[in-house]
């Protein structure tokens, strides 16, 4: 049965990549304790009309002497990191608060790009859901304030599918059947060559029982047999019609647009898509879709990559005290955290919001997914690891490289990270 979508405020469409127009924050006092706070964060929700803008406006109403201005970064996390890194490597003070992907914590800490938040640890840890809090730590120290978490959903058309599949094989069977009978695409995810591809691949790999490292990342546990199974599944899905046309060039927004326009039956994407589709009266999917946990190879449980963004204070900010006040507020203010859920279907990190919104369909599915969601290692080398996985696995999925050679190459690279 379809869950009825509640009213949401839809965020603006995809960002066009532009250079950062850096404008130094205005420090009224000249002592780093007042003036404008520049918040460098990206994605659709950072655009005008997006929920991050609503959060900034709420802060500004309460703190007119230290207003927040969002510096919009690109849509894709890879490009957001690149623009932040250019500024931080130059020790620039144009950014005060950094919207930091959960996998950048170790890198930013090791590079001494962000301020420690140990002095406010107790206040933040008490309020935050455990997984989100852990994603903001590195080396036992807190380097960012949890802001929003994330987990992958399976979106499906309820007018075309009786119930969501619980195995990847069943999903592909249904996707092929629907695409042939309805003349639309089957299943779409994030298949372009970027970080999203690695996330999607890991969800197959993890759901087959694979691991990357042991708990403290001192030993590589990468299983080439399981990795080959995940890669071959994706390669077969490219060939047999399970994946919709354009899978290998699709990112989050391309997938969202295709599902919202009624062009695919299944979609793997983040929770923010729910409000976009539920708020679009012209969408063929509006009123005809539902959400479910991602399948597994065994049909038991679910495994999703843990995503999300935390807010860190730049080590080069001229307004560090006000910036720290803002990141703590954004992590612990119930009204701000509730906005994330109700205006943008962006999963909050404040534990009390989940209790308050227990009847919300997005919160219900998140309740099923988050306990078993898996983080990518927040290691300083993760960006390089991800690039290596893209270079090895993407060609194999697309039939341009040998699968076994590809997974062995990944195994060899991972072993080099612990030597």
TrEMBL record:
Gene Ontology biological process: maltodextrin transmembrane transport; maltose transport
GO molecular function per UniProt: maltose binding
Keywords: Signal, Transport
Leader sequence segment: none
UniProt entry tagged with the keyword Ligase: no
InterPro entries, per database record: SBP
The UniProt record lists the keyword Glycosyltransferase: no
Pfam families: SBP_bac_1 (PF01547)
Any one GO CC term of the record: ATP-binding cassette (ABC) transporter complex, substrate-binding subunit-containing
UniProt record similarity statement: Belongs to the bacterial solute-binding protein 1 family.
Designated name of the protein: ABC transporter substrate-binding protein
UniProt lineage: Bacteria, Bacillati, Actinomycetota, Actinomycetes, Jiangellales
């Amino acid at each position: 049965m379809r869950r009825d979508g509640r009213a949401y405020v839809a965020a603006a469409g995809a960002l066009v990549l532009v250079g950062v127009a850096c404008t130094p924050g205005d420090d009224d006092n000249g002592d780093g304790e007042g003036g404008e706070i520049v918040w460098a964060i990206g994605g659709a929700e950072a655009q005008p009309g997006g929920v991050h803008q609503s959060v900034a406006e709420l802060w500004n109403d309460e703190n007119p002497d230290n207003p927040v201005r969002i510096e919009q970064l690109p849509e894709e996390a890879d490009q957001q990191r690149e623009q932040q890194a250019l500024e931080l490597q130059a020790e620039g003070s144009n950014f005060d608060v950094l919207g930091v992907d959960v996998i950048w914590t170790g890198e930013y800490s090791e590079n001494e790009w962000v301020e420690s938040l140990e002095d406010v640890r107790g206040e933040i840890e008490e309020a935050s859901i455990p997984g989100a809090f852990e994603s903001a730590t590195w080396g036992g120290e807190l380097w960012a304030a949890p802001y929003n978490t994330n987990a992958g959903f399976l979106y499906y058309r309820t007018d075309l599918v009786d119930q969501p599949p619980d195995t990847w094989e069943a999903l592909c069977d249904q996707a092929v059947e629907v695409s042939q009978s309805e003349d639309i695409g089957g299943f779409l995810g994030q298949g372009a060559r970027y970080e999203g591809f690695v996330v999607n691949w890991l969800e197959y790999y993890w759901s087959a029982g694979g691991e990357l490292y042991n708990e403290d990342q001192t030993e590589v546990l990468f299983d080439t047999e399981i990795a080959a199974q995940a890669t071959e599944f994706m390669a077969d899905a490219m060939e047999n019609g399970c994946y919709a046309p354009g899978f290998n060039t699709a990112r989050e927004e391309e997938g969202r647009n295709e599902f919202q326009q009624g062009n695919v039956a299944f979609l793997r994407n983040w929770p923010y898509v729910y409000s976009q589709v539920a708020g679009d009266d012209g969408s063929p999917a509006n009123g005809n879709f539902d959400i479910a946990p991602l399948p597994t190879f065994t049909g038991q449980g679910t495994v999703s990559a843990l995503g999300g963004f935390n807010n860190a204070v730049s080590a080069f900010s001229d307004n560090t005290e006000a910036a720290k006040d803002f990141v703590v507020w954004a992590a612990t203010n119930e009204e701000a955290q509730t906005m994330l859920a109700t205006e943008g279907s962006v999963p909050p990190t404040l534990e009390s919001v989940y209790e308050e919104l227990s009847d919300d369909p997005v919160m219900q599915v998140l309740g099923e997914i988050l306990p078993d969601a898996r983080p990518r290692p927040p290691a300083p080398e993760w960006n390089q690891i991800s690039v290596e996985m893209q270079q090895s696995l993407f060609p194999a999925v697309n039939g341009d490289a040998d699968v076994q050679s590809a997974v062995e190459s990944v195994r060899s690279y991972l072993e080099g990270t612990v030597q």
